[in-house]
């Protein structure tokens, strides 16, 4: 417990908040590398996942690939790329992108796949082009799940981005590795706590976003469902005649 | 006019949904495709707007083979109403109705003004325009579906079991409403149902389909009742039983019509 207080005290120590390698600077770096990784991984994974979810083709393959990627230990991948590419940010960025792809891919295809087939069929029968079906029907309706994928990818990136400090002077991981080296456990723990807080704050932002992207019409459906629920169990009354029951 | 010439549809798994079908659906009339599930009636309907492409034969609209037309443009010119309305749940009623005109490049102001008029046409209050589909009753959703189908003033209106999911009272109401609309608008309507009563009520021409996608008989309701083509049709329409097998008995000097169970159906007035 003492160690924990030492960690907090380290965080609160004003000298750690100024100068080169200060806490704000490290947090900024951590966020920058996380954002860069998220953007790169999204550019790769979201269109692929979207295509899989829209067409229904290649689902098995993408499940296999993301399963395979998940099985790769990030530290091992990082070491491998660091040996190949040398010290710097390239290796951790690649390793983190590999880490982030599976949840993004899964979120994108599950999101698009979750949309009622009849709604999509109706959109097509009205004369929407495939791109319009994706952009105007599947994405808005599947967005909460897509954002869920982005959310879980981001959480993993932020937690794992500490590894960037393994091969570069970058991010909150620096405190952990430095503390480990100099046996300054207060610094090490302080760094860890900062990573946890950062991850929770960002996750909280995504949780809010996830609620906000639920389309108003869908939210309205949730509200009316509560009111139109039959008071007696269905088994006892047969099928209740409440209009608009989904078939 | 919609014409099917020797149309066949075989799915990749080998199932034959429609086999060698020839029909002519006359303009400004309602043609009802009726049959049990698996008779290929919906497949037939969906070939008209190329949601399904036939594996053999031709579908022609006013003499033009639909296969030569861009499916998206074709669909934007044909009204489509489906079961469970098929409304986009994340869009307001007014946006749903205006969807296709907007896709076709009609100005926003014009599209929305016309959408409001269409709500009047299908008997919906304009105050519902800003609701979401989930906030409407099943019958109201279905009316919005019809309004959307009419939004580009199409010559052809395809209706795929549009009243299948609403309760009997609302269904009867919607059927009457459709008859009224059809009287005013005179569209070429193709209507799919499994309910023979609905078919006889709405259809100028009724096409009875049997398993395997073959047509048993295509004629007016009266002809079908008078001369069922085969036992399947006779059995399907119930020509020899229940409320269709009427006969006349004399009660106190008047001719009363009773059904097969002896229940009075009405009085013969001439």
Descriptive notes:
The complex is a heterodimer of chains A (247) and B (270). Chain A is mainly α and 247 residues long. Chain A has one domain: Orthogonal Bundle (MetI-like fold), CATH 1.10.3720. Chain A contains twelve helices and no strands. In chain A, helix 9 packs antiparallel against helix 10. Helices cover 33% and strands 27% of the residues of chain B. Chain B is built from nine helices and 13 strands. Chain B starts with a strand and ends with a strand. Classes of the chains: A mainly alpha (247), B alpha/beta (270). Chain A: This is Osmoprotectant transport system permease protein. Chain A: Its main location: membrane. Chain A: One of its GO terms (biological process) is transmembrane transport.
What would the keywords be for this entry?
heterodimer, A: mainly alpha, disordered C terminus, B: 270 residues, alpha/beta, Rossmann fold, 2 domains, four-stranded antiparallel sheet, 13 strands, globular
Structure described in brief:
The complex is a heterodimer of chains A (247) and B (270). Chain A is mainly α and 247 residues long.
CATH topology of chain A: MetI-like fold
Report the CATH architecture of the largest domain in chain B: 3-Layer(aba) Sandwich
Q: Provide the gyration radius of chain A in Å.
A: 23 Å
Measured by DSSP, the beta-strand proportion of chain A falls in under 5%
CATH superfamily of chain A: MetI-like
- One letter per element, helices H and strands E, the order of chain B comes to EEEHEEHEHHHEHEHEEHHEEE
């Amino acid at each position: 417990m003492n160690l924990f207080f030492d960690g907090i005290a380290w965080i609160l120590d004003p000298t750690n908040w100024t100068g080169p390698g200060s806490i704000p600077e490290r947090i900024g770096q951590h966020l920058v590398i996380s954002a860069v990784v998220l953007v790169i991984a999204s550019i790769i994974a979201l269109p692929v996942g979207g295509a899989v979810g829209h067409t229904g083709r290649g689902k098995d393959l993408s499940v296999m690939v993301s399963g395979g990627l998940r099985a790769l230990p990030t530290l091992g991948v990082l070491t491998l790329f660091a040996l190949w590419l040398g010290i710097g940010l390239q290796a951790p960025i690649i390793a983190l992108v590999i880490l982030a792809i599976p949840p993004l891919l899964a979120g994108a295809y599950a999101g698009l796949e979750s949309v009622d087939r009849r709604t999509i069929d109706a959109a097509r029968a009205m004369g929407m082009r495939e791109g319009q079906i994706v952009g105007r029907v599947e994405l808005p309706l599947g967005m909460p799940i897509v954002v869920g994928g982005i959310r879980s990818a981001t959480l993993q990136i932020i937690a794992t981005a500490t590894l960037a400090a393994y091969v570069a002077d970058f991010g909150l991981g620096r405190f952990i590795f430095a503390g480990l080296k100099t046996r300054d456990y207060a610094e090490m723990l302080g760094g860890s706590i900062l990573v946890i807080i950062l991850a929770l704050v960002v996750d909280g932002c995504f949780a809010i976003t996830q609620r906000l992207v639920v389309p108003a019409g869908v939210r309205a459906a949730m509200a009316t469902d509560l009111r139109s629920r039959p008071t007696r169990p269905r088994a006892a009354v047969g099928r209740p005649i409440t209009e608009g029951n989904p078939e | 006019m919609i014409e099917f010439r020797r149309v066949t549809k075989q799915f990749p798994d080998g199932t034959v949904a429609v086999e060698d079908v020839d029909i002519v659906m006359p303009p400004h009339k309602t043609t009802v495709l009726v049959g049990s599930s698996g008779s290929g009636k919906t497949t037939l309907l969906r070939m008209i707007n190329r949601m399904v492409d036939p594996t053999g034969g031709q579908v022609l609209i006013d003499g033009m083979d639909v296969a030569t037309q861009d499916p998206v443009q074709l669909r934007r010119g044909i009204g489509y109403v489906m079961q469970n309305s098929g409304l986009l749940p994340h869009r307001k009623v007014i946006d749903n109705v205006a969807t296709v005109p907007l896709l076709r490049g009609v100005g926003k102001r014009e599209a929305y003004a016309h959408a409001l008029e269409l709500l009047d046409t299908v008997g919906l209050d304009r105050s519902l325009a800003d609701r979401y589909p989930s906030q409407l009753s099943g019958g109201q959703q279905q009316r919005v579906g019809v309004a959307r189908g009419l939004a580009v003033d199409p010559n052809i209106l395809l209706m795929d079991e549009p009243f299948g999911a609403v309760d009997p009272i609302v269904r009867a109401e919607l059927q009457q409403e459709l008859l009224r609309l059809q009287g005013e608008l005179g569209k070429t309507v193709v209507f799919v149902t499994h309910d023979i009563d609905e078919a006889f009520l709405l259809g100028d021409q009724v096409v009875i389909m049997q398993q395997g996608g073959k047509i048993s008989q295509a004629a007016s309701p009266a002809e079908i009742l008078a001369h069922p083509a085969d036992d399947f049709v006779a059995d399907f329409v119930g020509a020899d039983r229940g409320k269709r097998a009427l006969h006349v008995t004399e009660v106190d000097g008047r001719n009363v019509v009773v059904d097969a169970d002896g229940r009075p159906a009405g009085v013969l007035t001439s």
